[in-house]
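Pipeline run #58 for the internal structure catalog. This entry was flagged by the ingest filter as a single-chain record with no existing model, so it goes straight to prediction. Upstream metadata was stripped on purpose; only the residue string is passed forward. Reviewer on rotation: M.T. Logging verbosity set to normal.
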Amino acid sequence: MPLDRYNFGAMTDAQKVIGKAFMKSPTFAVVGASKDQSKVGNEILRWYQARDTHVIPVHPKERELEGLKTITDISQLSSPSTTALSIITPPQITLSVLKKAKELNVPFYWIQPGAEDEVVLEYIKENGLIDRAIYGGPCILVLGDGIRSHLPRACSHRIYATFMQCDTLFDINLRDNRSSLPYLTPESSVPPNYAMLSSTLPICEKQERFFASSQFAVIGASSDPSKLVSKVLDWYQNKHMDVIPVHPKEKRLDGLSAIPSISKLPSPSTTALTISATPQVGRL
């Protein structure tokens, strides 16, 4: 498809839906990333970096691009089922990438203008990938920020974390409807027994990325139903989230199989942690 036939600044309604789902992914990979900063593949990689996303460059030869470790092929993705692909490759390579991505159950693809041809489009349509792929003209450099601006945000909130008697209590106030969300980031400055952390966080997207995770783990999970952390575990289960309790001794908690430490997580790179433990443990 000639580039002069593309509409770089427009998307169909269906593509807008896919675009939102694409942008909610916890991880992104850039297939066709380049070390040449004048190339679109490099521009897109830096676009992701500038927006504090977890992005992985894919390059067959380079070991590092823009300070990030590369992988040579998407088959090396640690969690392909939760990774969205930006594809900036010649059409014949794009086709092979899509075939591999389909095998790996990659959820979404953004195919940059010029990276597809009629053969690629036919493959997308014949293999049921229309609801996963953005193609035919939209450019992430032009439209990406617009899509991100329509994602749900919680931009004016405060996190209060109280460590008392080695239990973590927290309360989160959000501007949207998600109240009492169990999001906690430990800090190394917390004293052994008691501290109050209070900060306004200009990191709305970090919360979005946290809750876009494919799996969650609760460190400090307890068998005592009176403990607040038990309510956190219940919260995850009530939201039908894939949650793993972490406890050094208990084999099962709240009907779930427990693991003794986060080193036993099946996919740590796609797991978000809620921490309710002593500050010493929280710093590990």
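catalog note: Residues 91-104 form the longest helix (14 residues).
catalog note: The CA atoms of residues 158 and 200 lie 5 Å apart.
status: ready for reviewer M.T.
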